[in-house]
Amino acid sequence: MNLKFNAEVAAAIGDKKPIVALESTVIAHGLPFPNNLETAFNLEKIVRENGATPATIAVFGGEFHVGLNENQIKQLADDKTIRKISRRDLPVAVARKLNCATTVATTAFIAFSAGIKIFATGGIGGVHRGFSADVSADLPELANTPITVVCSGAKIILDLPATREWLETHGICVLGFGCDELPAFYSRTSGLMVDERIESAQEVAEIERARDELNLKSAILLTVPVPAEFEIEAEELERILAESSKLADEKKIVGKEITSFLLAQMSERSAGKTLAANIALLENNAKVAAQIAVSCKAL
Ligand code: PSU
Ligand code: MN
């Protein structure tokens, strides 16, 4: 597979330094402009401040880029023609030389091919509410890719109990970073349990090493709750989600559009509170991911 590294990532690989992969769908389709641009640069900065090298992943001209330049990040943030791609889209993206943002599924696929084993995002995809046949390709990718994904659980718009069951059935180890319950994206609780609570980056590094020694092919999902000051009350969340879902039904929005539609609607209906929470959890997850990448190298 032909991968294009930027100079910073190439140097980090050469020097065996810790690297954290970052996804690009959250930039192109998850957050509005200009918050997306600012957040993309901030996430990279946070990774660096915590001792690791950021590798934001995207596809340009059908080529897999691991570590982007400034112009590429700007293009992701404001070019409306950027396509959101999951695993099924990869052959088309390459053959047609498209410019694309990668989801958790495709970022994990490319990161692992590049030898990067830690990846930070906001919330993974999962089983959709009311339509249990809509299962994000993020889930099977995690079942088959031995990396660690740092996230705040699955996005609240999803059927969280069904998503939790899916993770269990497919052998994905779900850890809680200082929490017993699976975080629910904008909210710190879900009523669903993680498999194991851990308190430090080093513990994650040890569990990751054990997974590799056992030759298990599934990801470790390290879930980190949104910082408390940004948490949104469950009642308010359910209300704005119900309103947003109703509108999505009326407008017949389905498939890969549904996630960004609901996130944007919720931000509007909460006067930007969900957007602030989304950015806060992304930044916090980037920090934790960098700490784990550093701990893994220190083991
Ligand atoms: N995390 C966020 N915002 C996002 C996403 C993650 O904070 O928009 C993206 C990820 O790229 C994830 C995708 O892979 O949403 C899931 O989309 P779908 O439900 O269509 O599989
Ligand atoms: Mn889907």
Offer a quick outline of the entry.
The protein has 299 residues and is of the alpha/beta class.
Fold blueprint:
Layout: E1 3-5, H1 7-14, E2 19-22, H2 25-30, H3 35-49, E3 53-60, E4 63-66, H4 70-78, E5 83-85, H5 90-95, E6 100-102, H6 104-113, E7 118-120, H7 138-143, E8 148-151, H8 160-169, E9 173-177, E10 196-198, H9 201-213, E11 220-223, H10 234-250, H11 257-269, H12 273-298
Parallel strand pairs: 1-4, 2-3, 2-7, 5-6, 7-8, 8-11, 9-10, 9-11
Antiparallel strand pairs: 3-4, 3-6
Helix pairs in contact: 3-4, 3-12, 9-12, 10-11
The structure holds pseudouridine-5'-monophosphate and manganese (II) ion.
Provide structural commentary.
By secondary structure, this protein is of the alpha/beta class. It has a single domain, classed as 3-Layer(aba) Sandwich (Indigoidine synthase fold), CATH 3.40.1790.10. 46% of the residues lie in helices and 15% in strands. The chain has twelve helices and eleven strands. Helix 7 links the parallel strand 7 and strand 8. The model has no long low-confidence stretch (mean pLDDT 96). The site of pseudouridine-5'-monophosphate has 18 residues, from helix 2, helix 11 and helix 12.
For the sheet with most strands, the description reads: 11 strands, mixed
Provide the gyration radius in Å.
18 Å
Q: Can you identify the CATH class?
A: Alpha Beta
Label the CATH architecture.
3-Layer(aba) Sandwich
Helical run tally? 12
Number of domains: 1
* Portion in strands: 5-15%
Shape from CA axes? globular
